[in-house]
Amino acid sequence: MKLLPLLLAAGLLAGCSDGKSGHAAIEPMVYVDTETGKVVQAPPEPTPAVNPDTGKKTLMPGLYCSRCKKWYPSAPLEVAQRNPSSRMCPKHRTPMETKGPVSAP
Ligand SMILES: [Zn+2]
Known about the structure:
It contains 2 helices and 5 strands. By secondary structure, it is α+β, with helices and mostly antiparallel strands. Zinc ion is lined by residues 65, 67-68, 89, 91-92.
């Protein structure tokens, strides 16, 4: 069981960052599974996040292209910092959004 300490750490981190609003609902983030390409909604956590379906750390934050109507997994942070075009749609070369429509599972 390697998951438990991770979950505890995530819980502590979430507790620290949440200073004043005690019962504000956590807005789920959109992730894309880099293995299956599936779009998953989950509470914000350090990436790569664990896909609840597979138990593997394959979830990267999703970026939505409104022209493709498609989610793409975002590049790891260090890549995104070095290469801002990694946040662009690979097809349209337009900036992608972190918000967009998610079809219900
Ligand atoms: Zn596109």
